[in-house]
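Severity: low
Component: inverse-folding endpoint
Summary: output formatting inconsistent between runs
Steps to reproduce: submit the following structure tokens with default settings.
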């Protein structure tokens, strides 16, 4: 599972992770549960249906399939699986009962979403798992604890029966060695603080935390703690460029802002490192996130 504050690139990291895990002939499933169709946008596809669809191939004959889980469709599937409602379940959708149920009982919605992920993870065919790995583009860090703590949420809904049984099965999977929640952050104050809070919450819930993934890391362009106008002027002159006063002042200010930014980033990096968890840094992609960029990130994640 991949979580992170909105804007940190968690969907891109989840997609890259799915591509990396599919290398060498393996099959992975990339799942989203927030209705944003972020995977389709990332791969330049039409909106994904509620079906497992092949979206990419990898080296060695591997493939990535994607699934956008819709709570209403998941509830209909659930009603048909456990209660054999079939057409009657679809009739409930027409009168708005499905939307009503998932609105008044948000815990039920999360059980349906996580339950679908569990089903895909544990599904077997001819004696082996259908997928070598399932990657979930999970809700953001501010909601991840509640989303994954399905047993506490469903305790308010049902004391027995299929809902309780399913939530217990999901809870068992989430707390098993099969699961890892990777936390994506930028080296900025708000994302780092949310990451620290989410890791503490997941630890308290006994849900395994994987790597801290620092996304969009930028190289150090300058060293030292201060840049003077004299240094900038000498550098411009040595490069054969005009050293007008206004140019020198502007470049000096930009250089100092960069050093100040680097100092803040380093303090945030140390704050994350103090958790003692494995970390990986992914570079900022100059051309933005495209398919080639995803392959680059996938290779870095695979060999981290």
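Observed output (run 2 of 3):
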């Amino acid at each position: 599972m991949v979580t992170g504050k909105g804007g940190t690139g968690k969907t891109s990291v989840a997609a890259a992770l799915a591509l990396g895990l599919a290398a060498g002939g393996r099959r992975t499933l990339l799942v989203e549960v927030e209705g944003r169709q972020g995977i389709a946008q990332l791969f330049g596809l039409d909106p994904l249906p509620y079906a497992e669809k092949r979206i990419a191939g990898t080296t060695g004959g591997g493939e990535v399939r994607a699934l956008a889980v819709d709570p209403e469709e998941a509830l209909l599937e659930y009603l048909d699986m456990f209660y054999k409602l079939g057409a009657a379940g679809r009739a409930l959708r027409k009168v708005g009962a499905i939307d009503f149920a998932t609105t008044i009982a948000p815990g039920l919605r999360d059980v349906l979403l996580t339950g679908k992920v569990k089903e895909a993870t544990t599904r077997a065919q001819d004696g082996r798992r259908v997928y070598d790995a399932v990657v979930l583009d999970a809700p953001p860090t501010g909601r991840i604890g509640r989303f994954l703590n399905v047993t506490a949420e469903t305790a308010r809904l049902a004391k027995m029966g299929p809902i309780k049984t399913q939530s217990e099965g999901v809870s068992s999977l989430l707390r098993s060695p099969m699961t890892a929640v990777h936390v994506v952050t930028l080296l900025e104050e708000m994302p780092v603080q949310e990451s620290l809070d989410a890791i503490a919450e997941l630890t308290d819930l006994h849900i395994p935390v994987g790597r801290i993934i620092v996304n969009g890391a930028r190289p150090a362009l300058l060293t030292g703690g201060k840049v003077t106008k004299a240094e900038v002027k000498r550098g411009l002159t040595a490069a054969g460029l005009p050293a007008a006063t206004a140019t020198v002042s502007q470049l000096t200010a930009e250089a100092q802002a960069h050093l100040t930014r680097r100092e803040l980033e380093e303090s945030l990096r140390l704050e994350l490192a103090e958790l003692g968890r494995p970390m990986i840094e992914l570079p900022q992609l100059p051309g933005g996130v495209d398919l080639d960029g995803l392959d680059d990130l996938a290779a870095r994640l695979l060999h981290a």
